[in-house]
Amino acid sequence: MSMKDLTPTRRQLLSAIGTSAGSVAAMQAMVALGHAAESQFTGPPTLSGARKGETVLVLGAGLAGLVAAYELTKAGYKVQVLEFQGRPGGRNWSLRGGDTYTEVGGAVQKVQFQPGNYLNPGPWRIPHHHKTLLHYCREFGVALEPFIQMNHNSYVHQTDAFDGKPMRYKEVATDFKGHVAELLSKAINVGSLDDKVSGEDKERLLEAMRAWGALDKDMAYASSLKVSGQRGYDRAPGGGVEGAPTPSQISSLSDVLDSKVWNQMGFFFNYVMQTTMFQPVGGMDMIGKAFARHVDHLITYNAKVVQIDQSATGVAVTYQDTASGATATAKADWCVCCIPATILGQIPMQVNDAMKASLKAVNYSASVKTGLEFKRRFWEEDESIYGGHSFTNQPISLISYPNYHYFKSGPAVLLGSNAGGLGGSLLAGMEPAARLEAILAQGEIIHPQYRQEFMNGVSVAWARVPWNMGGNSRWSDDARKQHYQNMVAMDGRIVLAGEHASYIGGWMEGALTSSIDAITRLHQRAQEA
Amino acid sequence: MNKQKFALQTALVALAVAGVSVPATADAPGAGGTQALGPETGEQVYRQICQACHMADGKGASGAGTFPALAENPRLASPVYPIIVVTRGKGGMPWFSNALSPAKVAAVITYVRTHFGNHFTTPVTEADVKKFGSPAPVIDH
Ligand SMILES: Cc1cc2nc3c(=O)[nH]c(=O)nc-3n(C[C@H](O)[C@H](O)[C@H](O)COP(=O)(O)OP(=O)(O)OC[C@H]3O[C@@H](n4cnc5c(N)ncnc54)[C@H](O)[C@@H]3O)c2cc1C
Q1: d(CA B13, CA A214)
Q2: ipTM over 0.85
Q3: Looking at CB atoms within 10 Å, which of A33, A125, A248, A418 has the fewest?
């Protein structure tokens, strides 16, 4: 018996610890063994004992502001929230039939979706490791369902690959992997890697390439039933007399390289893009609404913050009623400011210059998301695509299929664009009707059914969202180094929070974790004051 | 031998390329990438990029915040300020040094400085942009 046999496996150890000492110990042990350190979340804040009558102003009723209001109220503070819009949630938002959306510049869109259909213009997917967000969903009973991130049967499309024909992901990904495996094994076999890989490892690598690449006995990647077992068949297996499958033809290395499918393969490896992902049943705004059930009575809506002052004893925030234009001033002992940096950077605020500079240093990127309603689910009925994304190098960037009400007859809404970068700017600069036309023209290249089945659509260009004027924050490495700590440091009686004040920018988790950290420090300072 | 060497190179290139796909830190549009669009002239750059925020007439617009007017804007008198803003970004104004070459940045600033009621006729050059502008910021996290 070797030493190895006596050493318990990691799994045995963990289950022993888990059953004997409870899950906290198991968790700590897992972290020590290099597992599960995937979130800084260790539980909701447990603030308590606020001084009687102590007050906090929260600016912005996005998730950062809502969680601040919720937890500070629990801690005993008297909270008032000022919100520019007439609804809670901020970027946590869904559009449904009957809604009206007016973008910067004044263009108005009336959403015409059938009941039950919706577009999530902003956040739409929740990674399994965003534990803070998942905690509140659990606490408030927000029902979650799977968000299909990876779909082997959706399309990969490049205008200059395969004569512009969309290809199924499983075909090009299998072919890419097969060709690379064949080439690597050739390189090993002619001795090209002798100075880098030992004899034993060479054998193992060859074995890996054969299995991974679905290579044949001669280590070649070639059309066969075995390869079709991954990329799909010409005639799929069936029953009875004609049951035998026939193989499909692989594509050449050069064609596969044109498809740039490694982009998709790499995308699915991203930490924040990995499965399992979730979405709230009925629309993303279920989360903001769930918070609002607890704090709605604290929120002053249609209140545009225009100035933020502080003294040694308190804060005074001037705001304008967006309907009447009348201004008023709200006062409190403390302020948690959760307004996006795009806008806050333009509001006169009595804080130190370093904090002000940080608001100009953080940058934003904006995408254009579009909901298209079609008469029927042709992607399901004609093409066996259930959820997931088809990727294209056209400005729309992708088409994403609804992850709910599968197989239902009647109208359904898909995501017709999630355009970033230059494609996003291009579409954002159009008026909604022209934008919709461009999005349909690009989409019909992937799904020729588009024109026949189209009913209506609504597009949200984040650059032109009046209360955000940008999409998600992004920090360059240099700006982060110079300015981030200045942004998050509390200045007197004011502390900033929001996704921009986190290392999880562009995610709801960042908004929540930033806010929880901010109110924890605020509470500490209030206790000391 | 040549053929084998070629095969090896191809394999390594393929593997190397497979490794460089951009990490998605924020919620990203996805992996398709956007095909190179062809804004060439200053006017095309303005129409395809800038008017999303500064509006088709250059007059800007407001919501909870403001997209400043570029029309009749005295701050464009010196080319240095717009070069810095366009290449480095500023709050809600994104940087474009990753997407636009210095020549295109020069072209669009020249366009803006001579249209929308602005009459700053000295052209901005590629050399000006290289001198006063910032290189594309790096984002690793
Ligand atoms: C296109 C897109 C896709 C995204 N996808 C995902 C995703 O899949 N998963 C995910 O987890 N996250 C995603 N996000 C990110 C997520 O939406 C944000 O990180 C999060 O919702 C931000 O919350 P916040 O409270 O920081 O800001 P916000 O939600 O923006 O809240 C700020 C609030 O301040 C208000 N306000 C603004 N100006 C003023 C003023 N002057 N006075 C008073 N109030 C004001 C606004 O109306 C708003 O309600 C996405 C975002 C976008 C734009």
Answers
A1: 21
A2: yes
A3: A33
